[in-house]
Amino acid sequence: MSSPLSGQFVIPTNREIGASSHSEPDNACTYLCGNSLGPMSKRSKALVEEELKVWATCAVTGHFTSHPHGRGWADFCDHITPPLAELKEVACMGTLTANLHLMMDSFYKPTPQRYKILCEAHAFPSDQATLAHGFDPANAVLEMSPRSGEYTLREEDILTMIEREGSSIALVIFAGVQYYTGQWFPMQSITRAAQAQGCICGWDLAHAVGNVPLSLHDWGIDFAVWCTYKYMNAGPGSIAGLFVHEKWKETELPKFAGWWGHDPATRFAMPPKFSPIEGAQGFQQSNPGILVAASLLGSLQVFKEVGMMQPLRERSLQLTGALESLLKKSQYFVPVEEASTRQSTKPAFTIITPDDPSGRGAQLSLLFLPSGVMNKVHDALNKRGVIGDERRPDVIRLAPAPLFNTLKDCEQGAMILESVFDEFI
Ligand SMILES: Cc1ncc(COP(=O)(O)O)c(C=O)c1O
Ligand SMILES: Nc1ccccc1C(=O)C[C@H](N)C(=O)O
Q1: Ligand 2 neighbour 36 (Cβ under 6 A)
Q2: How many other C-beta atoms lie within 10 A of the C-beta of residue 74?
């Protein structure tokens, strides 16, 4: 299974990425880390270079019609939002954490009866900090942990929790795909259950956008935020995104407003009164960073070429399924049911990401046993050109991203992991 698009990306060589033990230093490394930072697409590079040139040659006039590529900076993001979703529901803006703060401010309206926030335990630390939002998190934040001996949450347990606690919950907010376990939560059923109890339902889609198909509008999600440097491949710290369902259009949501959220027809007339754009774009604050937006636009063009998410998801299912079955053939693999009670000190690993493909995206989270093994494996993998990432305490994440990874990457990853266990551990 070769990737029709892998040639569109620049993958670092073994030498460049510091894989000092690789016998072929000038070959591309086995990059299974697009879940953390997607590689650079050639389109992104070309578009960023074009914008640098426009800056050099047009300066301020590049904002408007004199932009030689017809992408005046004043409405640059209009070229980005249509492929992402309905124009009015999506804004290309800011950063993930800042956008989550904005959404918390607009949607989290605690009352003495209804003030709790339901989320998964061990959410990404930035999200945990955001959810504290002025409240004592020990009282307000309800964190759901997996059952004893399990690593991921069961849908039935989440739905039962929502039903039981719903009347005191103001906001249900989960990660679409969980960063540590790789679990893709059943977004539609959680949203429906939360709203049936009168809760707002929002999502952090950092690990979900560009990874799994999303129907935010049809699922009735209230709001969502995401970054674009993971599966969207828009570059480190690139411009982020925000979704607000159109059902909120009649409601005047409080905003930390900025001039870029003002109606573009009168924005440059500098009126004293703020007149927000209807929908998500009314949350925009500042004029967007064009270099990062250009990089995102380049990456989106690659997604468009492949037909966006459905064909990619099919390829993703094949690749992740292939990596899973190769890993499960390892003599060091132990089934996940045995991992939490295992007594042996012999190094081993299991996969804590759900087996069911509908409960995961591209990422597999490998849990290493006993504690302490993971670090050594991670270092040895890196030296041999297999790039995944470690997440403490004991996980290495490997993600075959369907835009640029191939079956060969999965085979290399599994084979080198086996040799690392054989030789080093
Ligand atoms: C789930 C999740 N939330 C929040 C963040 C923080 O994102 P940012 O630094 O772009 O605000 C990340 C990634 O860094 C993440 O994976
Ligand atoms: N932006 C980064 C910069 C440096 C190192 C990691 C990140 C990540 O994004 C981590 C990611 N959110 C994660 O799921 O672990």
Answers
A1: yes
A2: 18
Q: Which of 350, 360, 414 is nearest to 388 (CA)?
A: 414
d(CA 351, CA 104): 34
The answer to whether residues 176 and 205 touch, using CB atoms and an 8 Å cutoff, is yes
Band of residue 143 on the pLDDT scale cut at 50, 70, 90: very high
User: Ligand 2, closest atom to CA 236?
Assistant: 1
**CATH code matching the domain that covers 49-304, chosen among 2.60.40.3200, 2.40.50.140, 3.40.640.10, 3.30.210.10:** 3.40.640.10
User: 96-107 and 125-132 are packed helices; what angle lies between their axes, rounded to 10 degrees?
Assistant: 30
Segment 417-421 shows an average pLDDT of 97
pLDDT tens for each residue of 348-365: 999 999 999 999 999 999
What ranges do the domains of the chain cover? Answer: 6-31+310-424, 49-304
Q: Which residues are annotated as a binding site for pyridoxal 5'-phosphate?
A: 96-97, 124-127, 204, 207, 229, 259, 287
Ligand 2 centroid to Cα of residue 36, in Å, is 5
Give residue 368's pLDDT.
Answer: 97
Q: Which ligand is nearest to the CA of 126?
A: 1
Query: Please, which residues bridge with residue 242 across strands?
Result: 91, 225
Q: Tell me the C-alpha distance between 150 and 279, whole Å.
A: 40
**What is the pTM (predicted TM-score) of this model?**
0.96
Task: Answer whether CATH 1.10.3720.10 is correct for domain 6-31+310-424.
Answer: no
* pLDDT value at 86 more than 70: no
Mean pLDDT on 195-210? 98
In the structure encoding, which two tokens stand for residue 297, read together? 């636009």
Reported ipTM exceeds the 0.90 cut: yes
